[in-house]
Input
Amino acid sequence: MSKYIHILLAAILFVTISAEQYYLVTVKVDDSSVQEIRDHLESKGFDISGYNKETNRLEIITDTPRFLEKECSILQKRNILFEIDEIVSSESYESYSNKRDNAEDYYGPEQTLNELQQLEKTYPKWAKLFNLNEWLGLGSTVEGRSLYALQVSLNPDLVEDEAKIVIIGQHHARELMTHHAVLDSAKDYLKRAQQGDAKFLSALENSAVWFVPVVNPDGLAYVFSNNRMWRKNRARNNDGSQGVDLNRNYSFKWGACGSNSSNGSSDIFKGPSPQSESEVKVMDRLNAKLQAQYIISYHSSGDEVLYPYRCGFMAEANVYNDIRDRLANHVGFGKRVASSSGEDFEHHYGLYGSISFLLEIGSSFQPSFSTYENRVWPSVQKVLPFMLDELTKPHVHIKVLDKDTGKPLAASLSITEINFKEQEQRIADEHGSYRWRLVPGKYNLSIKMAKYKEHKIIIQAGGQKSNYFVELEK
Ligand SMILES: [Zn+2]
Output
């Protein structure tokens, strides 16, 4: 079949391109070649912001349209339908938004913090706001900001020995729907609990949900003041460029495969070393403390559920993919494997056992706020209740204590039948607890800790007994 290509880049090729000039390029693609085009452009370092299934358009944000043109001509030779139909140059979100004149609009970092403080005030018994950088004893961002989390639970000022979920937004500065998705999920949870909804009340009693709307506050401020297409944080790189892609900087399998770059000026720069960025250190330390059972990390756009691993062996694919399939079905999203290693959801699963997904919400880049409210929020609203249901499914709860002192031990756990090959770790939390979602059956569990004798037991998943107390001897 004869396919063709139209490249309408000529007009902008004569424009002088400053370092800060970004272009949102909308590309019409043939449905059957989306994955091939995505893989090809990602392998060349382009950031695919999203794919709109309704209009068959890929959205690509680039500061190198000449390079994109070159890649287009390569695709032309491969007979892929590829038509660039719109190019929009960047400006600050503030000025862009003034032109749109929306009554309601997306929040910057201060408004988001205000909103979190309001929730803590309105629901003092159930909601507690944490300045994560202070609480975890870590330095602030390069521009002096902090990340904040709202814990929603009974006794919300304590980290209790109970199942946990973390809902995360806005690793990527310009993905403005994503912190609203997290804020609105927190509001919805608290409101429904107050109305006496049994599911939410029982979740409040038996678990904790941590809401972290903004992982990249410096980037978010920069989107509002300078460039609405900015993606990374505001780190100053050694080569004079700025910004690290926070969702390429996590240490687990850092830089192993997929779309990430060692070039500081790339939009998918993985950083100078694993976990070099304070924002990423905060999120890693938070989950080291919480060891959440489930994590949702919101991005935009594409209406997709992303799952691990981009490369490597998934030893728990049965359990993981079952939840993934049901979640995607429940929300009406498609499925796609991780874009790259070094993303938060691969990290939180690899090091802390959290079953984690990245959700690409919405079908286009920065739609109007009313589109977010009317079209995007209704699907996001289904996610947290689904995850709360998962918490009620049988988990094996292992609790490890010192036999003499009764103190909890951060012991290392392994199961013979689960053959990890990617240096995954399973370590009990500060209460000595680990909650493991397993396919029903019998398992050989081994518990190890430096200076203690190894302890081996057989555990049963999906049976009557789900709690195993283990005492280690020196
Ligand atoms: Zn993103």
Notes: Residues 171-172, 175, 299 surround zinc ion (CB under 6 Å).
